[in-house]
Design brief:
Catalyzes the condensation of carbamoyl phosphate and aspartate to form carbamoyl aspartate and inorganic phosphate, the committed step in the de novo pyrimidine nucleotide biosynthesis pathway. The chain is of the alpha/beta class. The protein contains eleven helices and nine strands. The strands form two sheets. A five-stranded parallel β-sheet has the order 7-6-5-8-9, with helices on one face. The chain has a four-stranded parallel β-sheet with strand order 2-1-3-4, with helices on both faces.
Length: 314
């Protein structure tokens, strides 16, 4: 694996191998007072975030540190980006400094792909290979989030193939939804997107999933329901009448959660808007896998870094 830019770069065997590695790393750390493995000693991992993040940025930093990599965080506000430096120049600067891996989040869809293309071309001159990990590019993709969600489904449900997963809410602006649809379909799950028509992207009928506008009708047949964050910062128009109306139609209330089968789990990529997307009592119930997703995020990102960097000679 050279880069991780999209879940569509992974076939079922490759995705399963990443999940299996995450499981093995999780087991290797169990019971350790000092959570440190020598796996990536001598490697340098740089996180470069042009958007705010808590879970993704911190979990990548922890993942690198737990595998003994030198981990450095670069934020747009504290770098030469604030002086007008281009994305290309910033990327090539970090690569030329010897970064083995750059984890990038950017508001522009396709940014990670462009960075990978630039660093690949520059490699012919510098001889330095830098792996690029897409940590979220605009409304396009978020592959490691989809992998950690798959790890959580596997952990809580015993498997993914044949399971039915509902993804609810702001699909239009959600890179998480897109990555999950394609990865879960690759792993054999049935995915149903549940959202008002105004929050569905153009071309969604070509995705490997089913689409519904009726949350109550879908809940009794789901093995897992994933609530999405309403991304107000990306909205430039009235996509629904009001927050209250959204909560009434698409929020996961205790009454709605009771419609789920007993074994079903509740997920959310975070950050949650409690009371609108999901009721606090549902987010904190035994059926909630939300904190499990966060924990699995560290091990999955360890696995991604391992597959990209461990023993890599080119």
């Amino acid at each position: 694996m050279k880069h991780l830019l999209s879940v569509t770069d992974l076939d079922a065997a490759e995705a399963t191998a990443l999940l299996d590695t995450a499981d093995r790393l999780k087991q290797a750390l169990l019971g350790r007072e000092v959570r440190k493995l020598p796996t990536l000693r001598g490697r340098t991992v740089i996180t470069m975030f042009y958007e705010d993040s808590t879970r993704t940025r911190v979990s990548f930093e922890i993942a690198g540190k737990w595998m003994s990599a030198d981990t450095i965080n670069v934020s747009a506000r504290g770098s030469s980006v604030s002086k007008g430096e281009s994305l290309r120049d910033t990327s090539l600067t970090l690569s030329s400094m010897g970064a083995d891996c750059v984890v990038v989040r950017h508001p522009a869809s396709g940014a990670a792909h462009r960075i990978a293309a630039w660093t690949d071309r520059d490699r012919a001159v510098t001889g330095i290979h830098t792996s690029i990990v897409n940590a979220g590019d605009g409304t396009h993709e978020h592959p490691t989030q989809a992998l950690l969600d798959a790890a959580t489904l596997r952990e809580r449900l015993g498997g993914i193939a044949g399971r039915r997963v509902g993804i609810v809410g702001d699909v239009l602006h959600s890179r998480v939804a897109r990555s999950n649809v394609f990865l879960l379909a690759t792993l054999g799950a049935e995915v149903v997107l549940i959202a008002p028509p105004t929050l569905l992207p153009v071309g969604v009928e070509e995705w490997p999933c089913r689409v519904s506008a009726e949350l109550d009708a879908e809940l009794p047949a789901l093995d897992a329901v994933m609530m999405l964050r309403v991304q107000a910062e990306r909205m430039h128009g009235a996509f629904f009448p009001s927050s209250r109306e959204y909560a009434i139609r698409y929020g996961l209330s205790p009454e709605r959660a009771a419609l789920l089968p007993d074994h079903a789990i509740v997920m959310h990529p975070g950050p949650m808007i409690r009371g609108m997307e999901i009721a606090p009592s549902v987010a904190d119930a035994p059926s909630s896998a939300i904190l499990g997703q966060v924990r699995n995020g560290v091990h999955v990102r360890m696995a991604v870094l391992y597959h990209l960097l461990a023993g890599a000679s080119s």
